[in-house]
Amino acid sequence: MQNGRQIDLSAHVERVKRRARPWKSIIALLLAIAAAVISYRASHDKSAFAGTSNLTRQFIIYGTAVLFLIFGSVATYGLAGKARELLEPTAGRAHAAIIRYAILVVGASTTLLIALVLFGVPVAQLVVGGALTTIVVSIAAQQALGNVFAGLVLVLARPFKVGDAIRLRAGALGGTLDGMVTDIGITYVRFDTDGSVMSIPNSQVLNAVVGPIPSDPEDPPAAADGKSGTPGGPEQPQPGPA
Asked: Are the C-beta atoms of 64 and 36 separated by less than 8 Å?
């Protein structure tokens, strides 16, 4: 009985934590915005902190910038996880994972750029240098990025979903593969073929011919002759009465 109460108590605590998660993220977002406003005003509006020394004002500028970076990261991570949790029952695991990934990328990039502005870093030069670096990295990681974009196309077009038994046919796959889709990830599709799970790159799956596994043709029923002992055979003489 005590074990049952402990299980109920732990389940109740877990439910309370799940309900509190979005509020923690929202509070962190509000604190991040407040820290950014204070840091920006302390840096550009000296009259707002006229009664403080230069050292104190510098401490306020950089201290609130650090707080913005911390609270912004916490809010981004929490909101991305909550979005995935809410969308997974309706949109599916793959769609929810992509939305979470997009929120993380956009939120982290925005938080980093604003933090650099608050620290007084020339963002324009970094953007130009980052663009050149991005081009170089994109060329070097062309295959990996191709799998990522192919995964986005598969998730949005939905030629199949997790749990479908499908047939893939492509030269890159060595012919024909029959199996069940167990997972659609960012870079790979997991494919169960007779108990052996394979990870196939999304780009190869996108270039393959996809269709349902055809059922085995059934043999047509043989026509039976009511007067003969064998189906479709010649008529056999019947034995006379004893």
From this structure: yes
